[in-house]
Design a protein that fits this description.
By secondary structure, this protein is an alpha+beta fold. It has an eleven-stranded antiparallel beta sheet with strand order 2-1-4-5-6-3-8-11-10-9-7. A hairpin with a 4-residue loop joins strand 10 and strand 11.
């Protein structure tokens, strides 16, 4: 396996079509803990088809049933070498969802992905790969842009640039303006995995032990969704259409059953946030930033 630079910056995926239904929207909301109190009508709006709302970060899972719409993927221009990374040594670093328009409760879309950055930390120190996926609707208009960084621990030393990667958002040093607590259920990873990520690290005790964890851990993207839930609850009055983008860096795992505290700082349209598990003294999400629509 090898990363070829700068060829990797020409690496794209073929156009892929996908659809989702209201059931998928509700399953995601349940997976990030919405609806635990079925009498809470603010949360009920995300898990009940009457006047259904969509959590913005659902965009990270709603395309899980993609199918090719234009040939094999990835697609490389003639004369360029295809890079391959060691996926056994990969860690999800950061995630951003930007919505060019609010997500509908059902829809059909086309998604295309490409590599937009590759940064070399050095031999034995890994590499950071940044990928972007753009959704378009049947009119060809942009709906969402998903940007994710991957830390490829086994792929450093490929000769690419060592600097220039996007800098993470810096949260304020003052005391948080608001803090919200969410208690995760012990079976939460088993529910969230039905959105598409069936990595046994999140369901199989033996797999978790081999990875150095006492029990299966919660998906990082589930924790990411919980931070968006915090913004909805504490900032927007449960109105998802106010959220333009939501981004964060993953820093530590959550164990199902943990209580997650999301700290938020308000600065106009910018909402900075971090998430922590007080019982273990662990910060699980860093450098968070939600941008509200003007």
């Amino acid at each position: 396996m090898a990363i070829f630079y700068p060829d990797i910056l020409e690496q794209k995926t073929a156009a892929r079509e996908f659809t989702y239904r209201d059931k998928d929207v509700m399953l995601y909301a349940l997976g990030v803990g919405m609806g635990q109190d079925p009498m809470n009508e603010d949360e009920l709006a995300y898990v009940y088809e009457r006047n259904l709302k969509v959590i913005p970060t659902a965009a990270t899972v709603l395309a899980s049933n993609m199918r090719s719409a234009g040939g094999p993927a990835p697609v490389m221009p003639e004369g360029h070498r295809q890079s391959q990374i060691n996926f056994l040594m990969v860690v999800h670093g950061e995630q951003k969802v930007e919505l060019h328009k609010p997500l509908p409760t059902t829809g059909a879309f086309t998604a295309e992905g490409r590599t937009v950055g590759a940064y070399d930390k050095g031999e034995g120190k890994g590499a950071v790969i940044i990928n972007e996926t753009i959704w378009r609707d049947d009119k060809g208009e942009k709906v969402a842009t998903l940007t994710g960084s991957t830390f490829a621990r086994g792929d450093g030393g490929f000769g690419g640039p060592s600097e220039g990667a996007p800098e993470p958002h810096v949260v304020p040093t003052r005391k948080a303006d608001l803090s919200v607590d969410f208690t995760t259920r012990e079976d939460q990873a088993l529910l969230y995995r039905l959105n598409g990520d069936r990595n046994p690290l999140h369901s199989d005790p033996e797999s978790a032990r081999r990875s150095g964890f006492p029990r299966p851990i919660l998906h990082g993207l589930c924790t990411y969704g919980i931070t968006c839930r915090a913004v909805l609850q504490a900032i927007t009055g449960f109105d998802p259409d106010q959220i333009l983008s939501h981004q964060a860096r993953f820093s530590a795992p959550v164990i199902p059953g943990d209580t997650i505290t999301v700290d938020l700082w308000k600065d106009g349209r910018n909402i900075a946030f971090e998430a922590r598990v007080k019982e273990r003294g662990a910060t699980v999400i860093k450098n968070g930033l939600t941008v509200l629509r003007a």
